Amino acid sequence: MIRNSPAAHAIRLLGDRWSFLVIRDAFLGRTRFDDFVHTTGAPRSTLTKRLNALTERGVLARQPYQAHPPRDDYVLTPMGEDLYDFAVSVWHWEITHGPKTAGTTVPDRLRHRLCGQAFDPVTVCLDCGAPVLPREVAYRVEAEQIADADAALNDGSPQRRSRPPGPGQVPGDPSMLQAAELIGDQWTPLLVSALLLGIRRYDEFQKELKAATNILADRLRLLVEAGVVRRIAYQDHPVRYEYRLTRKGRDLYPVIMALHRWGERWLVPDAAVGLHHHCTDTPLATATVCSYCRHPLKRGDVTFKVSVPVR
């Protein structure tokens, strides 16, 4: 079910450290290859592949700014701009739970032009207006529409998680590196999705995600070390553990919801896996709104200041 969800399709496209950091930079106004190299720390060849992939899938577009030699800006398309809910949800999670890193360009506060107030992003149900909580959302599966997603998640997309250097060793902009470590991966967001659905045990994760044992063990360890998940023994002989989200982990729910919503709009509009809120029997429709005035957030209506100039 999770592997067939719109969020899983979005994760296939964006679930890579370097792609995640490119999207971060694009929303900070960066557009040029050399700036991406500097701020992400990505090898030039790797960055070229990620920019090409994001361009081919319609998230970015090239805009020439120099003819001799030819040079292009990489700018967000309407499809890319629609990731704003995802970007602002990641920002809120990182500001709430991430380390305070010198040299970051991520603002401490966002301000909404429509009401003039500093705000937090809130994901709400468009039918009832209430904040969307995991326990109030049900997944529904149209069995006849489900296709086997195993091949899709093993199509050559990056799956091996490389360990990046620490924040003090990363070139350029160290903003959102914790989020990049957790979300910029093919498997970790799927594990968080499973945990949000109430799946807690190792064999249940294997059955639902069909992840290799070494990948599953590595990602669970990463989530425990990051404080997103806690491990609790439920059996003594032999010792068996289940995994439960901490508050830090539960606060990733708006990020997963934003990926689901974006994947539903742009990648799989006829998805077999749908969400339903407890207030209605119709498919869940959500928006990310200002916590002060409750208007939906748009990139052009949000202002911020950064402590380090954007290159």
UniProtKB/TrEMBL annotation:
InterPro entries: HTH_HxlR, WH-like_DNA-bd_sf, WH_DNA-bd_sf. PROSITE patterns: HTH_HXLR. GO terms for molecular function: DNA binding. Residues 150-174 are annotated as: Disordered. The keyword DNA-binding applies. This is DNA-binding HxlR family transcriptional regulator. Keywords: DNA-binding, Transcription, Transcription regulation. It comes from the Bacteria. Residues 5-102, 173-271 form the HTH hxlR-type domain. The keyword DNA-binding applies. Gene3D superfamilies: Winged helix-like DNA-binding domain superfamily/Winged helix DNA-binding domain.
